[in-house]
Design brief:
- This protein is α/β, with parallel strands linked by helices.
- The chain folds into two domains: about 5-100, 60s Ribosomal Protein L30, Chain: A; about 110-289, Alpha/beta knot.
- About 35% of the residues lie in helices and about 20% in strands.
- The chain has twelve helices and twelve strands.
- The chain has helices at about 10-20, 35-45, 60-65, 70-75, 80-90, 110, 135-145, 165-170, 185-195, 230-235, 255-270, 280-289, and strands spanning about 5, 30-35, 50-55, 75-80, 95-100, 125-130, 150-155, 180, 200, 210, 220-225, 240-245.
- The strands form two sheets. It has a seven-stranded parallel β-sheet.
- The chain is elongated and about 60 Å long.
- The model is unreliable at about 275-289 (pLDDT under 50).
Length: about 290
């Protein structure tokens, strides 16, 4: 596997890495990831590694990463002075390895066909991310989405990019496997209506307790901004509102925590296959009119 030595910070690949980390999500461009664990997760997820960056004196990592032969044929490997590589990375204590990878080209089909993490068919369970700003929250949400069998997420305008380096790290590699697509509000809700996916908005008060709603059928959970929640205009696109019953004296939960609880409840219902009665759901809908 040929290794090329780079000595200049003006190297085109290093510039690509800096740009990918600073401005993630550019259409058609590779994404930047840092650290051995994330690179190993990317390989396991079947992502193409366009370019691997190794700090000098860290060459043994190349063998430890064990790139598959077919990926190795496509991967450009650069050996870079540690100071140069550190300057391109975003973490406070950079690891001596980074990469440019090709994200999967996810589509609506991946979200709606009900493929549940390779475990077979399942009713779609989709997250609609509306104005999430904190990349740590987004990454944590994607990790929970994978853990509890969500089929994917829709990123509406104003939501931080899923390939933001902090989001990628917080996801612990789930961003490589959970389908995430960007869409306008109009496209998003039109697609979900066409596919007969019920949309639930989320709120901290005056709503149906999540454990009394039927989350075993095709559903989408509308997750709002950390500070302002779901806007009234978006909430009107939903057919109902969910809340999480909390016995403690807190007014609301962190966005990532709340989403994780809702995903757990959906997974619990789907595992037991005991949805709530239609009558109870209809009564809730009537109360909101």
């Amino acid at each position: 596997m040929p290794v090329r030595i780079v000595q200049s910070k003006q190297n085109a690949r290093l510039r690509d890495l800096r740009r990918a980390l600073a401005s993630p999500g550019r259409k058609g461009e590779a994404a930047g990831i840092e650290g051995r664990n994330l690179i190993e997760e990317a390989v396991r997820a079947g992502l193409t590694i366009r370019c691997l960056f190794l700090a000098q004196e860290s060459e043994p990592l190349l063998e430890e990463l064990a790139l598959p032969p077919e990926a190795g044929m496509e991967t450009e490997i650069l050996l870079v002075p540690k100071a140069l590589l550190d300057a391109a990375l975003t973490t406070e204590t950079p690891q001596p390895v980074a990469a440019l990878v090709e994200p999967h080209d996810w589509t609506w089909t991946h979200l709606l066909d009900g493929q549940n993490g390779g475990q077979g068919k399942a009713a779609p369970l989709i997250l609609i991310l509306a104005g999430l700003q904190d990349p740590g929250n987004l990454g944590t949400i994607l990790r929970s989405a994978e853990a509890f069998g969500a089929t994917g997420a829709v990123s509406l305008p104003g939501t931080v990019n899923a390939w933001n380096p902090k989001a990628v790290r917080a996801s612990a590699g789930s961003v490589f496997r959970v389908p995430v697509i960007a869409a306008s509000e109009k496209e998003c809700f039109a697609k979900l209506r066409e596919a007969h996916v019920q949309v639930w908005t989320t709120t901290s008060r005056e709503a149906q307790p999540a454990n009394l709603a039927d989350l075993a059928k095709p559903v989408a959970l509308l997750i709002g901004n950390e500070g302002n929640g779901v806007s009234s205009d978006l909430a009107r696109q939903a057919s109902g509102a969910l809340t999480i019953s909390c016995p403690g004296p807190v007014e609301s939960l962190n966005a990532a925590v709340a989403t994780s609880v809702l995903l757990y409840e959906a997974a619990r219902q789907r595992a037991t296959s005991k949805p709530v009665s239609v009558g109870g759901l209809a009564e809730h809908r009537g109360a909101r009119r």
